[in-house]
Amino acid sequence: MSPEDLDAAMTAGAGWPMGPCTLVDLVGIDVHVHASEALYEKLREPRMAPPPRIVSMRNAGLLGRKSGRGFYEDGIWAEGGFIPYQNIGGLTWREGERQGTLVLIYRMRQLARRLVVPDSYYGAARRLLRDKIAAHDIHFTGKPLDLGVHDERDDV
Question: What are phi and psi of 34, to 5 degrees?
Answer without folding.
Answer: -60, -45
